[in-house]
Amino acid sequence: MPHLVSAIRTVSRVKIKNHNEVVKTLIEKEMQNLELVKHYLSEYGRKQSWEFRNEPAGPELNANALALNLLVGVEGLYCCSHKALIPSKSVDKS
Predict the structure, then answer these.
(1) Would the N or C end of the chain have less CB density within 10 A of its end CB?
(2) At what angle do helices 2-13 and 19-47 cross, to 10 degrees?
(3) Quick one: which of 17, 18, 23 has its CA closest to 5?
(4) What is the pLDDT at residue 79?
(5) CA 72 – CA 67 distance, rounded (Å)
(6) Which residues contact residue 33 at a Cβ distance below 8 angstroms, ignoring those fewer than 6 apart?
(7) Which pLDDT score, from 0 to 100, does residue 77 have?
(8) Distances in Å between the alpha carbon of 76 and those of 30, 61, 73, 85, 88?
(9) Contact (Cβ atoms closer than 8 angstroms) between residue 37 and residue 66
(10) For residue 82, how many C-alpha atoms fall within 13 Å in the half-sphere facing its CB?
């Protein structure tokens, strides 16, 4: 999670009054993202079971991409929605 380390280092170099609060918020957001990935990966695994095969697929289909983007970093990682963690698919219209 180099993006988190980089963000914390940047905050540490900048002189601000609420340094600890900013770092705490970054860590909390990272924990939320990790919990989301954990949930999606769990749901993906569960829906692979024969007994749940007829349940409609949801955002867990992107669980692998979400996990990789969280681990290696991606632009917009700390935005208000997890949609930035999922790579957009470009369509070649040629």
Answers:
(1) C
(2) 170
(3) 23
(4) 59
(5) 9
(6) 70, 77, 82, 85
(7) 63
(8) 13, 20, 9, 7, 12
(9) yes
(10) 19
Instruction: Encode the chain in three state secondary structure.
Output: CHHHHHHHHHHHHCCCCCHHHHHHHHHHHHHHHHHHHHHHHHHHHHHCCHHHCCCCCCHHHHHHHHHHHHHHCCCCCCCCCHHHHCCCCCCCCC
Residues 76, 2, 42, 91, CA torsion sign: positive
Rounded to an integer, what is the distance from CA 86 to the centroid of its chain?
8
pLDDT tens sequence across 33-77: 889 889 999 999 999 889 988 899 888 888 888 888 888 877 766
Max CA-CA distance within the chain? 56
